[in-house]
Every structure is written in C-alpha cells, then in structure tokens.
Amino acid sequence: MSRFDQDREDLIRLIFSICDYARLGYSISTYDNCNNCKVSDCEYKPKCGDAVRWNCPLWKGADDETD
To answer: Which of 2, 3, 18, 60 could link 64 by a cystine bridge, Cβ 3.0 to 4.6 Å?
Structure first.
C-alpha cells in the first residue's frame, strides 16, 4: 500500500469520527438538562459557569408531579 493510500484511509477514518462526534453533540443538546429542570434545590444544580448534567435521572419537567 502506498503512502497516498494510507493517508487517504486515515483521512476517511478521521472524517467518520468527526461525524460521530457531531452526532453525539447533537443528541446531547436534545436531552433535558439542569437549565430546564424544575427542581430548584437539587444538589447537582451547577453554579454559574459550571457544566450542566444532561439526561439526568433526577430531572423533572413542568408536567411531572412533585413529591
């Protein structure tokens, strides 16, 4: 296999991995997170500048019953 063919295969693998990361980023952005959670006193609620939890099992929406 020539150097050109090897570089071409590496480039194709890189493109597919970039697409995988883009799909992951899009799917993460569709999950509910701390920004739209109705639990105001959650211990995982981030402070300003901290990362939010996505797909959190403690998440509650407006239509969920509260305890």
So the answer is: 60
